[in-house]
Amino acid sequence: MLDTIKKTGITYEDFLKLMEETAARPIPADADETTKEKLGYFPLNLRRMKRTYTTFKPTADALTTFEEIKGSQTWMIISEGWCGDTAQNVPVINKLAKLNQNIDVKIILRDTYPEIMDKYLTYGARSIPKLVAFDEEGNELFQWGARPEPIYSIMKEHIAAGLPKHQREEILHTWYAKDGGKSTAGEIVELVKQTTGAEITQ
Predict the structure, then answer these.
(1) Residue 141: enclosing H or E segment and its boundaries?
(2) Domain count, the chain
């Protein structure tokens, strides 16, 4: 699996470039409604990603924790540019990974490689972004995704209550804006601590 990820995955920078190219192209008039909707998200999500990457600042705890990573790791992120949760979380994940040069981020496009996605479902769904970390021998270290627990619980309640999609999206992105990546980073830092043996602080 690790060899496949390294061969098929792209860098964060290439993922951004792909998003920029997609956002710049006109939406085909003959595209179906689902495709039109997805393509329509690219310009907005691109802005979200750039803003999140600029504004998110890792904590001192994150810096200390990531110093404990000694061996090479590959962090696979299964994602797509049309996904709102991707725009809010992937920049945070990538910025954390940059804290240690031993971590290599590879982004896998969900819709291009469904066979990989289907190995890492969340509650039986193809939810993204999905982070899976591996050591240099291909052993799985941890998984995270597709949302931090606080907003996952909130959205689960709204879905159960039948709140319309556009209202849920407004709530979702308002929450992400206020949180500033803290919840996503905090959860991932705790997962890294569990794999490095670092002391977990509350």
Answers:
(1) strand 140-145
(2) 1
- The verdict on residue 202 lying in a domain is no
CATH of the domain at 164: 3.40.30.10
Confirm whether pTM is higher than 0.90: yes
Residue 65 placed within a domain:
yes
* pLDDT-based confidence at residue 45 (cuts at 50, 70, 90): very high
SS3 138: coil
Instruction: Give the burial class of 167: count Cβ atoms within 10 A of its Cβ; 0-12 exposed, 13-18 middle, 19 or more buried.
Output: exposed
Tens of pLDDT along 113-157? 999 999 999 999 999 999 999 999 999 999 999 999 999 999 999
| Residue 183 domain boundaries | 2-196
* Size of the chain, expressed as the number of residues it contains: 202
Residue 99 sits at the vertex; the CA angle it makes with 97 and 100, to the nearest 5 degrees, is 80
- Within a domain: residue 47? yes
Residue 108 within any structural domain of the chain: yes
The closest alpha carbon to 118, from 65, 156, 78, belongs to: 78
Residues 6+ apart with CB under 8 A from 136: 71, 72, 73, 74
78 beta partners: 108, 130
